[in-house]
Structures are given as C-alpha cells and as structure tokens.
Amino acid sequence: MNNQLVLSLKHVRKAYRSGDEGVLPVLQDINFSLHAGEIVGLVAPSGTGKSTLLHLAGLLDTPDAGEIVIAGQVTTGMADAGRTAMRRDQIGFVYQFHHLLGEFTAKENVVLPQMIAGIGKAQARRKAEELLRMFGLAHRVNHLPGKLSGGEQQRVAIARALANDPALLLADEPTGNLDVHTADSVFSQLLDVVRQKGLAVLVATHNRELLPRMDRVVTMQEGRLVPADFNGDPLPASAG
C-alpha cells in the first residue's frame, strides 16, 4: 500500500423515503478512506446499507450530505457527464452476477469498455488478451459466455472491470454466485491481479472466509462504518 488516497467519504449521509414510514435513514455518518494498493472487506447483514455505500462510492447515486472524493476529485455537485466519465475512467465494478453480453466472446466483452473510452480496436484487443491471460483464460478468449463455466464467466467480468485501468475497484459479492472451491480460486486470482496493479479495492461480501486475506475489514453499525476484526465483528472503540 502507498499513501495515494483513492477514495474518501466524509460525513456521508443517505436516507430513502419508504411509503407510510416516511424517511428511512440508511447511512448516518460515513467516514472512510481507501488508499492505492489497499484491499478492504466490507461485511454486514443484508439491509444495513452495504449496497447503498457501494452505489455512492461508485457514483451510481448521490448522498444527501457529505463529500465523496475519488482520485483527488471532489464529486459533490459534479455534472452527470463528469460522473459518467469518472465511472468509465477511474472505477471498475464487479457484481455477484457477471452481466456479460451473451452475443459477444470473452475477449469482445473486455474490448467493449475500452472502445467506449476511445481506445483503438487493436490496442483494446491486446489489452483484453493480456487480462484474460492473467486470469488463466488464454484458451477461452474466443468463447461466448454461454460456453464458459460460472467461474470463467466471473473471471471475464473481473477482467472487464479492469480493462480501463481504474484506480478504484468496487466488488459487490463477487464470489456470491459460485461454489466454495470456485469462489476461493476466483478470489485468489482477483487478489493477485489487483495487488500487481496496485488498485484500491472495496469488497462487500458475506463470505467471512475471505476476510483474513484482505488488508483490513469494516462493518456497518447503526448506519456508520466501523473497523472490524477478520471475523467481521466490530472492534472495540479503543481499537478503531
């Protein structure tokens, strides 16, 4: 890990309107920093705000209050075009389900986001082949997603998330749709590649067996983000 601050959330709050219940606070006062080369696990029960936090960090939603800074840029008040460009250039997303385009090969799925970012086709193809090779898929680059196993599909999805060399990778249950053995293998390859590249990574997961392999762990407690041990349990206040 180096000292480059990639993601900073300062006093971030978010609430939703919920029918007759009125305003439902989800995130109360989130303060969080993530540096280049750091992999942080986020573990908490469903409904506590994990996905909301990832959506805010990934600029897919806006906070009610507070400040979000990504790669040195304050996103508060940023126009939609700027937010879209930042998502394209600075942020990679990995979800529980791979969301690959079924009519395109593995390589084409990794080429597409690069071409959208203005990269030439030949360069994008070389980068796609390099990334897929790093994930052990050199022999599968021309296969359609339907011809790949679940683990292979998720590896392609991770390669796609890394295609534009983001500074920040946000992963929401990246192994949640895989069996235990495949989840372990996919996560190992994810860790190897992101550590090589020095990315800042935030991984939301229910799989507590993955937590000891991360640099640190945080959890949600009453709408706030607090340090946790490698079992996912909140640390005493004095330890945080």
Automatic annotation (TrEMBL):
Recite the UniProt keywords alphabetically.
ATP-binding, Cell inner membrane, Cell membrane, Lipoprotein, Membrane, Nucleotide-binding, Transport
Q: Does the keyword Membrane apply?
A: yes
Q: Name one Pfam family in it.
A: ABC_tran
Residues annotated as domain ABC transporter: 7-239
GO terms under biological process? lipoprotein localization to outer membrane; protein localization to outer membrane
Q: What GO molecular function annotation could you give as one example from this UniProt entry?
A: transmembrane transporter activity
What's one GO-annotated cellular component? Answer: plasma membrane
Gene3D superfamilies in the cross-refs = P-loop containing nucleotide triphosphate hydrolases (3.40.50.300)
* Keyword Membrane carried by entry: yes
Q: Which family does it belong to?
A: Belongs to the ABC transporter superfamily. Macrolide exporter (TC 3.A.1.122) family.
- Protein name (record): Lipoprotein releasing system ATP-binding protein
